[in-house]
Every structure is written in structure tokens, then in C-alpha cells.
Amino acid sequence: MSEPGRLTHLTESGAARMVDVSAKDVGVRTARASGRVLLSPAAVAILRSGEVPKGDALGVARLAGIMGAKRTPDLIPLCHPIALHGVEVDLAVADAGVEITARVRTADRTGVEMEALTAVTVAALAMIDMIKAVDPAATIADVRVEEKTGGKTGVWTRP
Amino acid sequence: MSEPGRLTHLTESGAARMVDVSAKDVGVRTARASGRVLLSPAAVAILRSGEVPKGDALGVARLAGIMGAKRTPDLIPLCHPIALHGVEVDLAVADAGVEITARVRTADRTGVEMEALTAVTVAALAMIDMIKAVDPAATIADVRVEEKTGGKTGVWTRP
Amino acid sequence: MSEPGRLTHLTESGAARMVDVSAKDVGVRTARASGRVLLSPAAVAILRSGEVPKGDALGVARLAGIMGAKRTPDLIPLCHPIALHGVEVDLAVADAGVEITARVRTADRTGVEMEALTAVTVAALAMIDMIKAVDPAATIADVRVEEKTGGKTGVWTRP
Amino acid sequence: MSEPGRLTHLTESGAARMVDVSAKDVGVRTARASGRVLLSPAAVAILRSGEVPKGDALGVARLAGIMGAKRTPDLIPLCHPIALHGVEVDLAVADAGVEITARVRTADRTGVEMEALTAVTVAALAMIDMIKAVDPAATIADVRVEEKTGGKTGVWTRP
Amino acid sequence: MSEPGRLTHLTESGAARMVDVSAKDVGVRTARASGRVLLSPAAVAILRSGEVPKGDALGVARLAGIMGAKRTPDLIPLCHPIALHGVEVDLAVADAGVEITARVRTADRTGVEMEALTAVTVAALAMIDMIKAVDPAATIADVRVEEKTGGKTGVWTRP
Amino acid sequence: MSEPGRLTHLTESGAARMVDVSAKDVGVRTARASGRVLLSPAAVAILRSGEVPKGDALGVARLAGIMGAKRTPDLIPLCHPIALHGVEVDLAVADAGVEITARVRTADRTGVEMEALTAVTVAALAMIDMIKAVDPAATIADVRVEEKTGGKTGVWTRP
């Protein structure tokens, strides 16, 4: 937060811009984000049941998250197009729904927390799409950065 | 929920598929979804301050949400490519952060709740991208369908 | 121009929106747009010369224009995703540069003038990309709608 | 212009190709392009009027231009996919219409003049989309590179 | 084949165009395409082995095929953007490799054989990407339309 | 093939991932792939005939292949987004159909064989789209990597 009270993506007159990062160092940067899809007990029961091939349901959401991370600069207007060197998305069925974690890694000039958040949210959206006929009230919650490393600011861990 | 206990996007053997909707009626369908970006008091103060051109910050997120709705079939693996006939995204600064609502309308063969949810989440991601230098702990919460109309199931309102 | 003095893509409070067209009739709508790439005499001479395979240079620009028309809703934030039922892009070498015309046709709920303008501009950009090593001062000029038909407003011809 | 009379994007037999730049140096390169949307006095008056939220109209076009720059390799068939490290798009209302300037910066292997031109033209298209109900004769004019720096050829300024 | 000896996607003078289909009837049209990825016995053994989670390997390719079908108009320059109402992609491990079948269904104005072929080829490419470290010589073979129905020409079955 | 019997794109538990390549060296890597579109004698005769502008038919397929190479990370779920520094696609009419070769070159952290294969298959799909009204039985065959260079494994040539 080099300039408190200023949004770095806006010029002094308030116009949106893609901030110049050409002078930043190329270096390894990572981010880990998490989030949840809150589901009804009936929906959780289906995902846990042996009758339904749970693997493919979670597998679709996982792949959507990985592919979503690659679409980040298409979706977020002021995000830089960036090399992505590794993406992992984990989904686990819990009592309250599905827990999602994304880990993103790059060797480039900007952080990858937006890519990690995008991976989590797109995986969550795909999960809802799979389950919405059973649980139309499914809710995305608690999507946030857990940790980021690299760059001038070094390691940041969620307080 | 025509087939309790079955995920409609999976075949009987569990393989993912894009469900055939060619026999569904073309008709007006709408969906309204909402969500929030939880922010620190300092971030809220900046968005509310007269010194910062708040309009453009929220304007970027609004536009990201509208454009995001159009990318839904690119992001959600089993979503149908669909005509979108109207999209509105509202953002309002509240004490706890930014409240987001999306309204989507179509005259096509499938519902548009995934488009509304995608509009909300992409607007939320763009909002976080704008504010993350000030508040790296910003969190997306409570993203969910509020109401949908049209199609065989008619009106559904969040219980 | 149903509401003089109002930009239809903005709500009363000035927020951007994708205007609802779900109540509009499906009908055949067409648009023709034109534009030019102004080039140096040397660049025109190369395009006209028998030594250079002119066909492929113009062919690349033509195809870029056709494909560009399909990307219109990705590029123009408030444009509706729309069915495109026919696109033709013509390029002709003239003394001052390359003349471009695009004709677009649809049977859908909104006009296709933005698709025609996008086809012309993307063809022009591709033409510049081909010729820029020879003529770095190449300029796009006079990109405009020549005629549109269909919809409630019927035929409009450039005055 | 290393090979006068040859289009570098075509092979000797005239086939289109993406030119190999893998041996070029990575270095900071910039480009500035400009263009105009010519509008009727009535349209200019609306943009200048206090009654209409001018900010958001220009804001939509600005954002479209920034996002358009990122789509350059999708639109221009022989353009390299390239890292973009900074993009600014300025719009100003003048008597004859809207003046647009784009500045693009990268640290990569090819110049970014096509990205700057694409930012200007997509911003211009979005501007027309916003105003076309009021001024269906709006015209894009004078889109051209003003200056580029970096690479083997160094600084080029429009003569 | 209404005009023997003429390529319908080219004008009389040989220029590419997107053929006008606005006058065609909206109706149900289907296509089925198939193809194969030829693999080494070692690669087939891995896919069949219980040690490797075969499901997810084939699941990635299946999903890539479904999503690839949606990208058809982005990839094939003269293809119409079209509504897709149902897509299924099946993969089966055989002695010689992986057999792929895609079924696509729409209620629109053009046939969907290109969408079915694209689904098969993208699934095949994704399959190769998964297995290429084990079998760098993997080969795509026999990609072709098996059957199409609907439209003026009715049912066509591969001779 | 560093880990025989393991698919590198799957974790030990079988979940898909984008493999981390941030520690790999940046270096020049190339790939050459080939493939064929098998056509009826009548279709070959049309492509060879002087009456039909063969150039543009093959030109469309060539451009589709080049642009397709750029879409590789959008299509192949676990492919890294990668800089492409050179792409050439050659098409030649032979007795049995059209022969396609793609050469791709990069200076980045991963190989480009998937990009070369994608260029060949997309060119083949576009070729079929051009000729399908004349030869609905056109078939894609023998798509495979011929040679790759660069990276830790060095030169690989098809056995």
C-alpha cells in the first residue's frame, strides 16, 4: 500500500488505467485463495453419496477453476495479461458445502492474487451450476486471499 | 428439481454433458442475484471520500459485471451459449463494504441465474482488484440467486 | 432516437447498462459500414505490384474483419451477444489507400451497425499490421455506417 | 522498414505467417496512438451537458479501450501474443467530437503500436455505441500512431 | 451440395465470406462426429491401469471437447455464431488408443457438424496433452462426421 | 518422460492441475507438427481447378491455423498461457487431399508441441468447413508431432 488513500488503478483525475509494471522485477510470485459454496444437507448428501459419481462433479469445478485463472485478464478490466506457471485447485466436500482452495504461481512482474481469487470463484460458479437443480439456494461465501509471496512486499498472510 | 438425487449435468454413468434444451420453449426468463465485497473501514472511507472519484471505481466494477455476464458460457463448462437481452449491475457502498445486485433478462430456452451470479462475482472480483492495494483482506460473501422467473418452474424466490 | 438528450445505454442516474431488448421483434436487420486506410504512395504501389501477392494481404484483412464482427459483444461493453447470419467484407486498393466495406445481416432483436463498424475497423487494423513496416504512418479514416435496415426505425441512409 | 517492397508478414510465396521474433531483445517499448470520433453538435452538447453523467459515458469507452488492447492478438491475425505492462486511454470532449489517445508500454520482444491503435479504435467503437441513438452518423477518423519507442529502430515520431 | 464445383464460402471472385443464412428455417439439427487418438501400448496400459485415476484423464478431455464445441465460431473463420442446445462427448479406451464420439444438437439456422468435429478434435488435443509425456508420438486419426440431421438436406449418413 | 507410469498433469490423487514450470529455463523451443485432410477426388479437383480461387481457400485455413495456435491455452485445459514468437502453417493440395504442416517457435518455459498440433487441427477444421458442401465425408488424419527441440529433453524426432 504505497499510497494510502489512493486507488492505484485510477489516475489523479480518477480515470481507470492499467498501471505500468514494466520496471518491476521478474520473480517468482505465488498466491493462495480460498472460498466456499454453502449447500443444503440434501445437496451435500448427494455429493457424498456413492450413487453419484462425485469425482466428475468436483472434477468439472476444478477444471473450470484452472481454466478460469487463465481468463483473469479477460474478466478483470485493469489486470495485466500475465504468464501463469502453475495452478492447482482443490475441492473438498464438508458438512456445510464444498471448500475450495486455489494455488497460483508465476515468474512474472505482478502478483497473482487476482488469478487465485478468479480460480476460486469460477470453480464455485461451476459447482453451483452442477448442483443448482438440487439446491437453487446455493451460496458462494468467504472468497479471499489467504497468502501471497514474492514482489517488493514479500510475504503477506491473512491476519 | 425434476430428478431428486441426480445431478442433471451428469449422465447416468457420471460423465459431464451439456444438457439438451432444444425442446424447451423460447420465453422470457429473468434472474436477480446479489453479493457483497466485505471491506475494511479504511477502504470504505476511501470509496466514500470526496477526494477519490468513487464513480469510476464502482463504474469499472459495474462494467466488468456486465461484460462478465456475456462470458458465462466461456467460464462455466456446461452452460449453454445463450442470448442475453438485458443486464443491469448495481453497486452501492455500505458500512461493511460494497453491495452488488445483478438483473439479467433473456428470451431464450434456459434460465439466466448463472449469468446473474457470474455478473455479481466478476463485478466483485473487479472491485477487489481496484481496492486490494488498500485492503488486501477484502472478501467476497453471500453471492446467491435472489429470484428467478420464467420457464417451466415459473417464479422462484429465495426462501 | 426515441429519447432525445438521453444516452440509452445509461440509466437515469448515469450507470451503464445493457438495454433490455427482450420485447423487440425478431426480424431481418442489415447494416453496411465503410472506412479507409490511408497509405503512402509507396505502400499503395506495393499492394498494386505484381511482385507481391496482394491477394493474401487483402485476404488476411478481410478474414480479420469477418472474425472481428463475431467478437463485437466481447469488445463493446454494452453490445448484446447476437446471432450473425451473414458477413461480407470487401477491400479495394485505391490511390489513397485501401477502401473497406462491410455488410452484416441478422434475423435477431437488435441492429447490427456495431458489428459492421467493428468488421471495418478490425479489417483496417489488420491491414495496418500488414503494411506498417513499409508505412508506419498509415491512418484509419472515415469509418461510419452507410445504411441500416430493419427494426422499428426501418431504413436509415447516411445523409 | 528493413526490406523495402516486401510485406514482412508474408513469406516469399505470399503466404501469411507470424514472423519469428524469438531472437529479438526483451526491452521496454512504448507506443502512443490517437484518433477521433466526429459527432454532431447535438451529440457533443449532450456529452457536455450537466444533465447527462458524462463521466460514465467516457468511462465506458476508456475501459473498452484498455480491455481492447488486451484482445489485440485475438483480433489481428498475425500479431504476437505479448505482455502488456501499462495501458492508459484518455478521452476528451471537443467541439467536433471526442478526442482519444492511448499509451501502451511493455517490456517484451515486439513493438506495441498495434495494441495502441486497437485501444483507440475499440474506445471509439464503444463511444459510438453509446451515442448512436442520438447521432447515427458518428464517424471514426484520424486513427494513427503518433510515436513509438524501443526496439532496434528506436524512436519514431509521426512526421 | 447445391452448387457443384463452387465453394459456398467464397464469392464468385474468390473472396471469403460468411454465407447469409438469415432466410433459413429455425429447426432441430443434429450432428455426430467421431475420431481417435492412437497411442502406444504403454500409454494405453496406463490409462487402463487401476493405479492411475483414469476417470479424471478422460474427464479432462471430455470437458475440453464440450467447451471446444462452444468455441467453434471463434476458431473457424466463416462459421456462424450459433446456439448450442446439447453437447455430449464420449471417450473410451481401446487397444489402439482412445475412441471419441461427439453428439451436438441445436434448434437454429445452420447445421452443427463443425461443432461436432471441433468437439472431437479439441477432446483429442486435450487427451494428447495429458499423455504426451508418456507417448510423444500420439496421433489424431479418423476425425469425421458420422451423421447429420435436419435442415433442407435432411439426414446424411456417412457412406 | 521423467516419471514413467504417471500422468504429469494429474496429482498423486488423480486431480487435474496445471504443472508448475516457474523453475524451468527460458529458452528457444520449437515444434513441427503435420496432418492431413482426406478429400474426395471431386473436392481435390475443385481445389486444383483454375476456376476456383484456390489461394483464398487455403489462405483461410492457413490463417485459421495461425490464429488457432494463439488460442491453445483457451482450448487445452491444462496448457500454460505462453508467448508465441513465430508460427508458420503450410498447406499443399495432394492427390488424397490437403497436407498441413505447422512450425511454432518460442523463447519461453514450456514446449510448443500442443500449439503446433492445435495449429494443424484448426487449419484442418477450417479446410473442412470450406469444402464440406462439396465433400461431407472429409476426414482429418495423421495429426502428430514430427519434431520438437529445446528444453531439458533437447531434440525429439518422430521415430
TrEMBL record, chains A, B, C, D, E, F:
Active site: D129
Catalysed reactions listed for this entry: (8S)-3',8-cyclo-7,8-dihydroguanosine 5'-triphosphate = cyclic pyranopterin phosphate + diphosphate
MF GO annotations: cyclic pyranopterin monophosphate synthase activity
Enzyme class label: lyase
A Pfam family of this chain: MoaC
Residue positions binding substrate: L78, C79, H80, M114, E115
Keywords: Lyase, Molybdenum cofactor biosynthesis
Alphabetized InterPro entries for the sequence: MoaC, MoaC_bact/euk, MoaC_sf, MoCo_biosynth_MoaA/MoaC, Mopterin_CF_biosynth-C_dom
Pathway where this protein functions: Cofactor biosynthesis; molybdopterin biosynthesis
Protein family per UniProt: Belongs to the MoaC family.
Designated name of the protein: Cyclic pyranopterin monophosphate synthase
Organism: Sphaerisporangium rufum
